Amino acid sequence: MSGELLINVTPSETRVALIENGTLQEVHIERNGKRGIVGNIYLGKIIRVLPGMQAAFVDINLEKAAFLHASDIRTRLITADKNDSEDVEKDIRTLVHEGQHLMVQVVKDPLGTKGARLTTDITIASRYLVMMPNANHAGVSQRIEDGGERNRLKSIVTPYCDEQSGFIVRTAAEGAGDEEVRHDAEFLRRVWNKVAERKKRKQTKMPLYQDLDLAVRVIRDFVGGGLERIRVDSKLSFEEIKEFTQEFVPEMSSIIEYYPGERPIFDLFDVENEIQRALQRKVELKSGGYLIIDQTEAMTTIDINTGAFVGHRNLEQTIFNTNIEATQAIARQLRLRNLGGIIIVDFIDMSNPEHKKRVLNSLELAMSKDKVKYSVSGFSSLGLVEMTRKRTRESLEHVLCSQCPVCDGRGNMKTVETVCFEILREIVRVNRAYDADKFIVYASPAVSESLNEDEYHHLAELEVFIGKQIKVKSEALYNQEQFDVVMM
Questions:
Q1: Beta partners for 48?
Q2: Closest Cα partner for 209 from 114, 112, 126?
Q3: Which of 87, 297, 367, 417 is deepest in the core (most CB within 10 A)?
Q4: Which candidate, 193, 186, 44, 185, places its Cα nearest to that of 120?
């Protein structure tokens, strides 16, 4: 697999595209006015305690109050040897109280009507280490299996642990030099000292600590991910990224390039058009089949259809081939659109158990490239495949789109005929309730035209029925469902 990052930077936003084997796989977008806050550390104030929910609302100087659950409040009892600890049984009323200030970290961005999710279990990550200010020990990622290497890494960071803080060695540290790991430990110690200093000053208007910006954060997260090249179209951002990589990820410094080309960087690999296609419900398959993807607040549903694909053998084989092709498209679309939560996949019905097994295996294989945690269940009794994918950030649709002001998020509008009949009923209602000489109806051009032409006979009958004149006027600024009945 060959991977490449394209980084597009403007004064208002930063966009990062991950290209694998010439195809867009992921898009990360961060707008300066709506920058994500996961990882930020704040000095928050408890504004309300909810015993029934075992949670509290916390003011961290954002538009919406943040949410802190009792299970996310760190309360540890250190044992005599001070190396082990045990959890304390938690009751939110014994842990926090209204008006209390405490240090918290954001673990989930605000989403929709929900505020940010918080924890008091503070961590700060670097290239090789994660600092845990509330711990007092050194740990090593379980993915580093070699015993000798684990001992070596642990011995490097242990001297930096004290009664107030500890470290976890990340998987990326395997094989790293002693100086590199020590450098990270010293860097994180300096960062934490700065945070502690800001806390003493009771800094509440700004974060005590703010995570790296998108471009640098993505590069940090993709270390060891098989990237061959990183291209940046901003000279200033290129220099900042270059400086960061030289200090923290020197092995990636050589693959970073400044892109000065006249052609927009996202026109490479057709990224702009791919983003537009990722906002559509319908995803075409090469065979002629297609997916229909519907994202709601509760879940995402994916429906597979054969479309124009009739195959060259029997129907069962055609269905199987379409479902297999769909598994690759599903895995890519989940990453590209960053869809999370509950996902229901409605594959085309298959009667052959072996075909079902192979489709599931194909889906698992396609999903294995995803860095985000996920799980795939087998076929249910209704023939549906249930999946979950961890929500890590806003979906592409939520970042780039807003709710339709006309249909109010329903995804459809009343027909012209329906609106016409609503207007006729409204005239009858108003006529019974009030004394008027005549009525004027203001409606959208399409509805006005229909009332004056297709539905004119109904309008004429109503005039005879109520014995009053009804005039219809077109209002260009009205949407199809909008109208006013005015008494004269």
A1: 57
A2: 126
A3: 367
A4: 44
Q: Is 121 helix (H, G, I), strand (E, B) or coil?
A: coil
One-letter identity of residue 12: S
- Give the 3-state secondary structure of residue 164: coil
195: Cα within 13 Å, side-chain hemisphere? 24
Tokens of 258: 């400044």
Using alpha carbons only, how large is the chain's radius of gyration in Å? 29
pLDDT digits (tens, 9 = 90+) for 444-454: 999 999 999 99
Q: Are 85 and 21 in contact (CB under 8 A)?
A: no
Residues in the chain: 488
pLDDT at residue 169 greater than cutoff 90: yes
User: Three-state SS string across 269-287, please?
Assistant: HHHHHHHHHCCCCEEECCC
Q: What one-letter code names the amino acid at 35? A: R
Within 10 Å of residue 442's Cβ, how many Cβ atoms? 19
Helix (H), strand (E) counts: the chain: 13, 25
User: 């006729």: which residue's tokens?
Assistant: 424
Closest CA to 46 of 105, 109, 101, 120: 101
Q: What is the mean pLDDT of residues 393-416?
A: 86
**pLDDT value at residue 140:** 94
Q: Which two tokens stand for residue 422?
A: 């609503």
Residue 80 has pLDDT above 70, yes or no: no
383 has pLDDT over 70: yes
What is the residue whose two structure tokens read 């790296």?
212
- Mean pLDDT to the nearest integer, 60-86: 69
Q: Is the dihedral of CA 337, 338, 340, 342 positive or negative?
A: positive
Q: State the residue for tokens 């208007």.
A: 205
Helix (H) or strand (E) holding 461: helix 456-466
Q: CA 169, CA 180: separation in Å to the nearest integer?
A: 12
Strands 138-140 and 166-169: parallel
Residue 7's identity, in one-letter code, is: I
Cβ–Cβ under 8 Å, residues 161 and 138: yes
Domains along the chain?
Answer: 3-35+213-273 (3.30.420.60), 41-200 (2.40.50.140), 280-400 (3.40.630), 416-487 (3.40.1260.20)
